[in-house]
Amino acid sequence: MKRRTAEPYKIKSVETLSMLSFEERKESLERAGYNTFLINSEDVYIDLLTDSGTTAMSDAQWGALMTGDEAYAGSKSWKRLEHAVREVYGYKYVLPTHQGRGAENILSQLKIKEGDYVPGNMYFTTTRAHQEMNGATFVDIIIDEAHDPSIDLPFKGNVDLDKLRALIDEVGAEKIPYVCLAVTVNLAGGQPVSMQNMKEVYELCKSHHIDVMFDATRCVENAYFIKERENGYSDRSVADILKEMMSYSDGCTMSGKKDCLVNIGGFLAMNDEDLYIRSRELVVVYEGMPSYGGMAGRDMEAMAIGIREAVDDHYIEHRIGQVRYLGQQLLDAGIPIVQPIGGHAVFLDAKAFLPHLKQEEFPAQALAAALYLDSGVRSMERGIVSAGRDIKTGEHNRPNLELVRLTIPRRVYTNNHMDVVVDSILALYEKRDTICGLTMAYEPPTLRFFNARFAPLSDSGELISEENKKVNA
């Protein structure tokens, strides 16, 4: 019998959670326009909206806040962060940014010109937005299996090398400023990329003088999956695997709010000195001095420690294990989720969960709203709403995956909280045919999932009701 383990930490401080009544949750949801992003956090019981910036920092990180050097230039705290990035990730040059999208903005402006193509292993919302705003077309080169939530493969985030070769042959290497390789792939369900695939992508790109830039936001989780699933890595430390991973890239953008275990901050790293010099100038324009880049000294101190804490094998084993604890209970109960269970979240398959709803009725958005209404658990839509519209035709982008993301913050909740989430989802699944679709009452022009507002399509105006059975029959 496999012995059970507990969290590799103990709790020093607690925060009281809100436990609203059904009617109070209903009022909160209506005020938010059925968009979970617009619900006030004080109205949320268990917040699984995102793992970005929601980490519980360690005592070492909290202590380091008091040592932050807030000098405008030449901060000692920056030197400590720079050293940590170089030591753990292996890049030569590092520039701080206020968060990951600050790094994406600078990279996109410097590398992309009008008419370029940026291939990647599935889009991410803000990443693609920066690429498109600078004149590029995103091209999805992930393996086909990643678009099917029911297929269980160990490295579902892999690049399809034939797709990449075909794009190079079609548009020419000079039209591809870099390949954007996400490790792991968020919108595919937190799926990892194998070391072999990274190496093959890098070698192919080098033969065509194309850079490889990682979206390294959850790279430590990817390294753990390699240790667990790829031949030849089981006896190596996560830190060692991570260092090899990064060697198959020319640089990365990093949101420190995930695998760096902090609440704010990020960086842009690279090995090319010319790109570093040009990037440094834009950091001054958009972020701040190259020695703080939008972060306070105390933030940089906490990140420098978090970078090292994240590659502790015991920490990351528990991190992945808690996500599995939630996902496996749902699988055992017959709930449709993305398989295999990913690194940072469990993704409900809203198409299979609510088959009576058409995609233009926003089933993932409706399911996320219903989950909050049922239990006060906040989650996130990752489907047609997040995919936005085609910049040329104005039509909805229609991803194959219509998902609700249950994103687990790092070191925040216990498995008892996960049990509450499971109970709510099981209750909704039993009455799934009473959940109606939504119409979009307000649509922002860009990244609409953040601020869009919705309304139920039922005659009664209720999101969950017996009357919905008639409406959706």
TrEMBL record:
GO MF term (any one): tyrosine phenol-lyase activity
Cofactor: pyridoxal 5'-phosphate
Superkingdom of source: Bacteria
Keyword line: Lyase, Pyridoxal phosphate
Pfam families listed in its UniProt record: Beta_elim_lyase
Enzyme Commission number(s): 4.1.99.2
UniProt catalytic activity: L-tyrosine + H2O = phenol + pyruvate + NH4(+)
A biological process term (GO) from this entry: tyrosine metabolic process
EC supergroup of this enzyme: lyase
Ranges for domain Aromatic amino acid beta-eliminating lyase/threonine aldolase: 47-422
Subunit structure of this chain's protein: Homotetramer.
HAMAP family on file: Tyr_phenol_lyase
Family the UniProt entry places it in: Belongs to the beta-eliminating lyase family.
Record protein name field: Tyrosine phenol-lyase
Organism for this UniProt entry: Sporosarcina luteola
This protein's encoding gene: tpl
